[in-house]
Amino acid sequence: MKANYLCPNCRTYLNVGERIIVSAENKEGQKGILLFSIHLGDYEILKHPYFDLKKNEIIQMSCPCCHKSLKDTKVHQNIYKIIMQDDEDQEYEILFSGVYGERCTYEICDGKVRSYGEHASKYLNFNNLIQMS
Ligand SMILES: [Zn+2]
Predict the structure, then answer these.
(1) Ligand 1: distance of its center to the CA of 13 in Å?
(2) Closest Cα partner for 113 from 84, 70, 73, 78?
(3) Are the CB atoms for 38 and 46 separated by under 8 Å?
(4) What is the rounded CA–CA span in Å between residue 94 and residue 101?
(5) pTM, to two decimals
(6) 67 alpha carbon to ligand 1 midpoint, in Å?
(7) I need a labelling partner for 78 at 20 to 30 A (CA). Which of 1, 34, 100, 106 fits?
């Protein structure tokens, strides 16, 4: 499936090639760029080796274009959101954890959620959605 990923605020395309680009900041206030895979469930994150992230620390993430936070505090304070658009222009909310090392992603459309990652059960109870098998 050919999908695009958009900022929920300014709707700029965040995917370039096989990667989704976000601005990030660690607990110490150091800024960096993170590249996520466009393939949901692939948790390889590319970053500069000097951008230091520690396991289980919360990363602040924002749109590289409008600089607004991607945090979705309606669901949980660790959860971030971007929009996915499939090749038929159907839109999905993509929620993911901002805790470094936590592997969980939720794809939500019409009140239904499909989850990815070994830690997916951690936040499922927060969004009151019907889980798809
Ligand atoms: Zn934006």
Answers:
(1) 9
(2) 84
(3) no
(4) 18
(5) 0.92
(6) 6
(7) 1
